[in-house]
Description:
This is Outer membrane beta-barrel protein. This protein is mostly beta strands. It is built from 4 helices and 48 strands.
Amino acid sequence: MRYTLPILTILATITSTLSAQQIKISGKIIDAVESTPIGFATVSLLKQDSTFIKGVTSNDDGLFAIPQVAKDTHLLSVSFLGYETQVIELSKSEKDITVSDIALHPASIALNDITVTANSIIHKIDKDVILPTAAQLKSSISGISLLQNLMLPRVIIDQVNNVIKTSDGSEIQLRINGVIVSYSEILALIPQDIIRVEFHDNPGLRYGDVAAVLDFITRRKSSGGSINAELMNNPFVGFGNNSFNAKVNHRKSEFSFNSNEWDRDLDFTRNSRQSFIFPDKEIHRNRVGEAIPFKTRGINNNLNYSLQESGKYFFNAALRQFYRNTPNGFDDEKSTYYTGDSEPVNVYIHSAYRTNAPMLDLYFQRDLKNQQLIIVNVIGKYTYSKTEYKFQESRNDVLYTDINNLTKSDRYALVAEGIYEKTFGTGSKLSTGLKQTQTYTESTYSGSSEAQVNVNQSETYLYAEYQLKKGKFNTSLGVGATRMYYSVQGSKTEKYLFRPTLRMTYTINDAAYIKYNGIVYNRVPSEGDLNNVEQEIDSLQIRRGNPNLRPFMTYQNTLWGGYKKGIFDFNLWMRYRYINANIANDIFFEDGKFINQNNNQRAFHNLIGELRIQVQPIKDHLTFSFTPGIARFINKGNNYLHTYTRWYYNSDMTANYKKWIFNAFLANSFHYFEGETLYLNESWQNVSLGYKTDRFSISAGVINPFTKEWKSGSRVFSALVPMSSQVTSTSISKMPYLKLSYNVNFGRQYKSADKKIDNSDI
Length: 762
């Protein structure tokens, strides 16, 4: 024991001496033009001979810190894609060094001369930050094209339906600098304007219950503007996607206009088998269909104005309009079936709908001292919709069943939201918010039933979330409280719900990470279901609303992780979802008719797992990915139990050489089973080859080149009315298309402000 004290004293002296020989270097990185912080910049500490010592990445606020640095003369190298690299000489110091704002200037050299030396993907607790490489930007012709080249896990680009979704069919929310946008606005982005893509694969409470968010962070111009156009059309059938985008900047202001028009004029054939099990008899029908047109046309217009002063405020006003007219719906049918006698029965089903939805979105963000932020967002939206449905049965040209239903709806919605955020020096963050949603819907039903239904819905949502980072762990704990109220024809329902969430990220090393998300959220019945209206479907079936539907709770656990080594990149993703009292369709027999009505069922279970394997044999020029997956469904209804398992896959390939670009996508169908209905979704393939210059690009492609006949359909496992239906088409099999794009970009660039929230999806 007598030697213990001297030994401890010696160790303490050595530790103190070593500590005294080390210092910490910290600072902040900003944009030289706008003076805004640059997050995720690469900061490298070098010896005087440029030998690398260690490196870090700046956080969202542009701050960085390099601890345990020897007292010596060093070089500090700061770089970020699209900016000129800044190298600063640091003299030997006895104290910690704090570097004043390091200003990076936008790069004036060509993109193919810029090299990203850091990891191109930064994993954070709520998102992955993807820094596109110079080769990826150079080979892309739009924001959608860049997304194809990035090959993000679970992200599927459906260019036929103009949506970006997850591999299980959930639609992904799209944003540009935090502002929610449409598919066409992503399509109009000039790749060279994109600084990074933030993939919120683990979104926090502020985003609600969306599956994922893709946010494209772009540079904003201080003057000049841009004009973009893309035309994608088929020369033989009615298929077109055409967009136009214009933007003008003047000092602190930005004006932009975006318009996207799409049209479809295709032929489909529907065949079905349906049985009706009466108490005393059975009727079986095999309907053989004929080709019938599907026609739809839509346009999405967006007029936007924003005003910002960096570090102080950001105001955004957007006027949007969505219009769609479908004179011939996808569910249309022209078929023939035979009964016990020799005379065939002709069936004709026709549906049509039209929607017009203008919306005004006002957003204000105020930056306060000490890394505090206040956001206010107010949205008003009006939606008019009209739906027509006709069902006819005839024998020998004699009409004996004639059903005509017409539904008109006027919906008024107002959303007001406020958010407060505080970021602490340790990297921790506190976020709280209050959101009020109020909707009022007037619906008129005519035809087989005459009624007018008024639905008044209100939702108040309050949440708080705290994010803490400690070592390799990044944890976020949040809780939300919701008051839900709705009134249908004077019948009122009120309910209070809590929504806890837990998110965790563990960075194992530079090559591997693991994430977890546990969340509880609620959903209310749709306005279309909350009525007491009956409408005939055919001569034997009636659709009936249900004003007694209750909100239901969803409990979801998601676990995923990744490992990257050399040319290989692996990503494993698993999710278990349990819904208590889920809403699904019931069919029962009453007064000689079969009644279709949505009811709260016992439970719904869904387990999905998939493994994405990506290989890059030629860096920046050739990349493959293959994703096999499995989905398991368990539907526990009030009077049934159904289970189903589906194996699925998708694969991607992208290649580029000089100005030539090749893309290929192949996937079988993801089947979704809900209640007693199994949805047999379509399989898709898309192959294209293009040529790109700085401003102009042209490409040719084929949709479903390996499919002789496009197929989709559904199966209903009802004990009373079992049914199977298959829709086929040759219009979108081996369907060629030509795509032309032209981009003009002028004016000086600088980094834009970010809009933090959005409530446009109301």
